[in-house]
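Sample intake sheet
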Amino acid sequence: MNIRVAQKEDIETLFEIRTSVRENHQSRAEIAELGITPNSVAQMLETDCCAWIAEIDTQPVGFAIANATEKTIFGIFILPSFENRGVGRILMQAAEEWFWSKEIEEIWLVTGNNPNLRAYGFYLHLGWIPVGVESEGDFQGEMKFIKKRK
């Protein structure tokens, strides 16, 4: 498996992977309603965000995207046919190392507030700590997880 930093020319690949997932599936139209478009992602990658693509035999199979200013991981998405192969764990490690290299002491993410969701258990398994359900804003009803630099 190869992990590399995503470039502007990878944006379509990011959308293909994002819209392929089973859990937390969203269509391109639903993502666009949230303001996530190829143009907005291009702007993110040019500023304080970084995305990583996981490849197996040169095929992109997953990605993670994070924001240094917000100190958050926006998401990790894996093609369904490549789940349970360690791709998410390796992508999370790349994102965390990026944050720690920037001397950021605490990062956060949100996911659905249901312990039966795969993502919820995945974050717990990787040492993330659930700190409570968001009560307002864009993430209302979502569980917030944090992780501190060791």
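Comment: The chain has five helices and seven strands. The mean pLDDT is 94.
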